[in-house]
Design goal:
Shape: elongated
Mean pLDDT: 94
Radius of gyration: 25 Å
Largest sheet: 5 strands, parallel
Number of helices: 14
Strand order of the largest sheet: 2-3-1-4-5
Number of strands: 10
Low-confidence stretches: none
Distance between the termini: 31 Å
Helix content: 40-55%
């Protein structure tokens, strides 16, 4: 089952997108609706709110005066945190119950305004952000909801910035245009990404890089895509003693690369990666184990292959190829992946040489000569001692130079 986090600033039209996804067949859990439910008359959270904020936030009929409460908490971050400390656990429990009851055949969408602020997006396979400029949101709140401009701006200021949302967004869904344009965009996302991703998850279908190899110019989005993959994998494997990093060419600025995010997961013992708990955690996070790739090419030539053993997973997102390399912490393969990345970051001439090699090999594959990875191995054999020399000269260690 595909899990999708849907978010956006107040006044962005997030609820409209949620309704459209529901019409298309998704199961939508509305965090705002749950938040209203847990503070209804008779609920424990309502009594705690009255005790914390005073009887002035309770109407004569015993219900919550949401406007009065909002006027207290939104201009004051500490008061907002106090409210969240009361309502958060009740909301989380109810959301877990509702989402746990979603039929497996449906895409599971969580409509959550504070998905980014609370870091909850790491639980989801994808994050969709409905994007509207702050000024336009203020206009909508004032014009359509009758909210005073000062209140509108205070609420917007209390939420995540656009840049923070961009860092978490797998899908950035602009909503500055017409309802028809938004409908078309949502339908396209549903058809081209959500449904194929859901299908891949259900059937354990990994997404492979396209062939022949196509090199892309450096993309500034790769860093954020790598960060999201790292965060989700680290969350999925929390408690298992792992170290997770973005490696490979997309982790290096100004380097041409295949549009593939490579993530290295370090484990204390490689045998830990063979446990059912480890494999199940990555499977739930959207990664399929690939038993056809159990080792990197040892370097230098003739080195003991045991130190280059690994486990390998591929992601299921049809729009972003992700490869996960699981290696034992401290093994030659694990250390080289980090050192090679940092060498390329530190040495412009090395980046240039590697880019030249990439172009050469990509052209060979386009001509039907050899496999891209295998064809690069002679270059890596030459580069390996250069990396080791740089490690000695720079004082680099895998624990001292991270991320």
């Amino acid at each position: 089952m595909l899990r999708v986090g849907l978010t956006g600033g107040i006044g962005s039209g997030k609820s409209t997108v949620a309704a459209l996804l529901r019409e298309l067949g998704a199961a939508v859990t509305d965090a705002d609706a749950v938040a209203r439910e847990v503070v209804q008359s008779g609920q424990p959270a309502l009594g705690a709110i009255a005790a914390e904020f005073g009887r002035g936030v309770i109407r004569p009929d015993g219900s919550l005066d949401r406007a009065a409460l909002a006027a207290i908490v939104f201009p004051d971050q500490q008061r907002l945190q106090a409210l969240e400390a009361i309502t958060g656990p009740a909301i989380a429990a109810r959301v877990a119950s509702l989402r746990g009851a979603v039929p497996p055949a449906l895409v599971d969408v969580y409509d959550m305004p504070l998905l980014v602020e609370k870091g909850l997006w790491v639980h989801e396979h994808l994050t969709v952000v409905v994007a509207v400029s702050a000024d336009e949101r203020v206009r909508r709140l004032v014009s359509f909801r009758g909210m005073p401009e000062a209140d509108a701006r205070a609420r917007i200021a209390a939420q995540a910035t656009d840049e923070q949302r961009r860092q978490a967004a797998d899908i950035w869904l602009p909503n500055e245009g017409t309802r028809e344009e938004l409908t078309d965009a949502v339908q396209r996302v549903w058809r081209e990404r959500l449904l194929p991703y859901d299908e891949n998850l259900r059937h354990g279908i990994p997404v492979r890089r396209p062939r022949p190899v196509r090199l892309c110019e450096p993309d500034p989005n790769w860093a954020a895509e790598g960060s999201r993959a790292v965060a989700r994998i680290a969350h999925a494997l929390a408690g298992q003693g792992v170290e997770v990093e973005h490696v490979g060419s997309t982790s290096i600025r100004d380097l041409v690369a295949k549009d593939v995010i490579d993530v290295q997961v370090g484990v204390r013992r490689l045998a830990d990666a063979d446990s059912p708990a480890f494999e199940n955690a990555l499977t739930r996070a959207g990664y399929v184990v690939r038993r056809d790739n159990r080792s990197d090419t040892p370097h230098p030539a003739g080195a003991d292959g045991e130190g280059w053993a690994k486990r390998y997973y591929s992601g299921c997102d049809p729009e972003q190829v992700v490869h996960v390399h699981v290696r034992e912490i401290g093994s030659p393969g694990y250390v080289f992946a980090l050192a090679f990345r940092d060498w390329l970051r530190a040495e412009p001439s090395a980046r240039t040489a590697y880019a030249t090699e990439k172009h050469r090999v990509a052209h060979l594959e386009l001509s039907g000569v050899g496999d891209y990875t295998v064809a690069k191995e002679p270059w890596f054999e030459v580069a390996y001692p250069q990396v080791q020399d740089w490690v000695r000269r720079s004082g680099w260690t895998e624990r001292g130079h991270r991320g």
